[in-house]
Amino acid sequence: MKLQISSILLSFLLFFSGCYNFKVTTSPSDARIYIDGQYISSNSLFKSKINKVKVSVERYGYKEINQTLKKITPFGTKIINLQLEPEIFDVNIETIKPGIEIIFNSLKIGKTPLNISLPYGEHSMFFEQTDYPKEEVLLKASYNGQYYFKHHKDEMKIKQLGIFKCGPQPKQVIFSPDSRFIYIVLLDGYGYQVFDIEKMQIVDYVKAPDESLKRGFVEGLFIEEKNVFLVSQMNTGFIYEYSYPENKFLRKFNTEGTWSKYIAWSDELSLIAVSNWASNDVSIIDYQSGKVVSKIKTAPAPRGLVFTEDSKYLYITSYDGGVIYKIKTADWSVVKSISKERSCMRHAVLTQDNKRLFVSDMYSSIIYEVDANGFKISGSYKVYEKPNTIFLSSNDKYLFVSSRGPNNKESYLKRSPENGRISIIDIDKKEIISSFEAGNQPTALGLSKDGKYLCTSDFRDDTIELFYIGDLR
């Protein structure tokens, strides 16, 4: 009789419990977990009608795990941690100048070019050769094949992650808001390429949906609030909008200007500003309708744009006119302006407190610091020839500068006789703390939002260079 009651009680409990509970965690923790084909997040409860489930765990750079989990009773939760094993990659290390000694784990392992097998992930190494400073680099093993580096003649304060081939004439590089990708805008291409930082490779080439396949893509911008990416096409005066991260074409904006270049975004006003190099004006576009709502006339060749955080003002630089404007967004009128003879004002960035504006002058090879409130030049930094793009670190401590270098005597459109340079300015100490050689005509420059990476592009080498700046010293 007791046995019968126990059986009935067990059946009752089984009936009302109705499922078997499983929890799976992984190392690394960001692996994707599937139980019976259903995606679940790490450490989430999975309920099954039966006591056996199939578990699959996958992550790039690691060997996939497939196994069956079994639970004897429906009571409690079965918890399991799965340790993924890294993939091993066959790495070929090459340097611009061959014969460089490589030191790995305190041992000299050979000279470049060198073949070595490494597990997935970042590996610290040192380059060593006569009359050069010893340089630490980070090699992120993530595929089988060539990894390309340069041993710098300059003392490096940041760590090189490699030089990577890309499409023709990379004009700008922009990190995605989640710091996972670098978008490479191609002046001599048909759109932009997507570089995956985890895979250390270009994984997509997004071409504009224009049947004529015109080139001339110049600048890009992420609008994080809208999950979109914008890219400008100089030859047509259009701004193309894509969804992020799907890179699905959504629509295009007509700037109603000529040779449209730089793009700025005001979240407060939900407006896009676009500088039109050849029509000497700036288009103000309503984001929702996609229509031009105002035009700001400027001195010749407007280029740089930046909104203040409260969007009460817009700063504009004029390249050929040598002017910096402060514009009141309430009526798009000029509040103040700064003019300098024999100057080419190109790019502008603003500190997060809106107190300091920095502007690159390509003609004089100077970076100006402007007191944004009084709107007067308060300081300057002499850098290498033809400074292009400038970018502030996320903590507003460092200003990074890409300098293209001297023009070719035949035409500035041809390869420069000397490589360009990257400079790092400590804006609190007001001094240049680092300057090092880049490739031919380094033009683009971008920093990741997480503060880890710097990317530059070598316009005439068709390459991008990636650096780790997380421990800038």
**In CATH terms, what is the architecture of the largest domain?**
7 Propeller
Q: Order the strands across the largest sheet as they lie in space.
A: 3-2-5-6
Taken from the alpha-carbon principal axes, the silhouette is globular
How can the largest sheet be summarized? 4 strands, antiparallel
SSE blueprint:
Layout: H1 2-17, E1 20-27, E2 32-35, E3 38-40, E4 45-48, E5 52-58, E6 65-70, E7 77-83, E8 88-95, E9 101-104, E10 107-111, E11 114-119, E12 121-128, E13 135-141, E14 145-149, E15 159-165, E16 170-175, E17 181-186, E18 191-196, E19 201-207, E20 217-223, E21 228-233, E22 238-243, E23 249-254, E24 260-266, E25 271-276, E26 281-286, E27 292-297, E28 302-307, E29 313-318, E30 323-328, E31 333-339, E32 345-350, E33 356-361, E34 366-371, E35 376-382, E36 387-392, E37 398-403, E38 421-426, E39 431-437, E40 442-447, E41 453-458, E42 463-468
Parallel strand pairs: 1-7, 8-14
Antiparallel strand pairs: 1-4, 2-3, 2-5, 5-6, 8-11, 9-10, 9-12, 12-13, 15-42, 16-17, 17-18, 18-19, 20-21, 21-22, 22-23, 24-25, 25-26, 26-27, 28-29, 29-30, 30-31, 32-33, 33-34, 34-35, 36-37, 37-38, 38-39, 40-41, 41-42
